Amino acid sequence: MRNNIPATSTVLNALLRADFTTQWRNRRSVVLVFLVPLIILMSWKGLVDKLGGAFVLSICITIGLTAIGLMGYTNSIARDRDKGIFQRLRVAPLSTWTIMVSRLTVQVVMILALIIAVFIVGFYVDKISLTPAGYVFGFTMGLVGSAVYLGLGQMIAGLIKNPETVNATTRLVYFAFIMIGMFGELGMLGTEVQTIVRWSPFGSVKRIVSDSLQPAHWTIQSTQALLATIGYAFVFSLLGIKWFRWNTK
Question: Could you tell me the pTM of the whole model?
């Protein structure tokens, strides 16, 4: 009897085409996700000389990663789960891991596009120039940092089933990360809050991105921040996978 189950590569290609098509149709929301870090980058042009180009770029990249992981990825999987899309896909002859790999691939492409956009705007508007090693290392640490927010988004979607509640929660967390993280990092909320922020998910990601943009400035504290980032990503992802349900029942 002939096996009618399609090859994994065929299934994954079909899912990728569908997910990229959906992302293109929702391009207005993608533009909004990109606008926030780019607007901050352009508005902070006068602070480049005071804070340093790497600091400004890292803040904007970290904010962008937060937006993609929380506002983009989390809300999309919560919405599709509520519509029953995941449940219908699960009865098809395909492995469940291909569904999430396809979704995550789309997010990784968005993350790469965001980092490129920040680098371009930083170069042409803020006149921030890095070494080739800084750009490459920055890309790498940006991808590592994105795992924290994708994992956090997965955890929120696993913990909360109602898509409207998921949307409200991600907005609240996103706002808290931006306001407390950004102002706390600058020391405007006191030294105690600044210390907490530096070792929070926001601060750890910001630290490894900032120091990777200047490889010569990488220190033992940078390595500790990298280990903290990996730890956050592992815990969030583990809980997100454990708690996630393919339907809202």
Answer: 0.87
Please give the full DSSP string across 197-210, using - where no structure is assigned.
HHTSHHHHHHHHHH
**pLDDT for 2:** 46
d(CA 226, CA 166): 28
10 Cβ contact list (under 8 Å, min separation 6): none
Contact 89, 99 (CB under 8 A): yes
Do the beta carbons of residue 95 and residue 6 sit within 8 Å?
Answer: no
Sequence-ordered list of residues with C-beta below 8 angstroms from that of 240, at least 6 positions apart, any chain = 151, 152, 153, 154, 155, 156, 157, 158
Q: What is the pLDDT of residues 93-108, one digit of tens each?
A: 667 788 888 888 999 9
How many CB atoms are closer than 10 A to CB 190? 10
Q: What angle do CA 214, 217, 219 make, to 5 degrees?
A: 135
Burial of 224 (0-12, 13-18, 19+ CB in 10 A): middle
The tens digit of pLDDT for each residue in 184-225 reads 777 777 788 888 888 899 999 999 999 999 998 899 999 999
Q: What is the pLDDT of residue 1?
A: 41
d(CA 180, CA 176): 6
Give backbone dihedrals phi and psi of 9, rounded to 5 degrees, phi first.
-60, -40
Q: What share of the chain is helix, strand, coil (3-state, %, to 5)?
A: 85, 0, 15
Residues 214 and 211: their CA atoms lie apart, in Å, by 5
Q: Which residues of the chain have pLDDT under 70?
A: 1-6, 91-94, 249
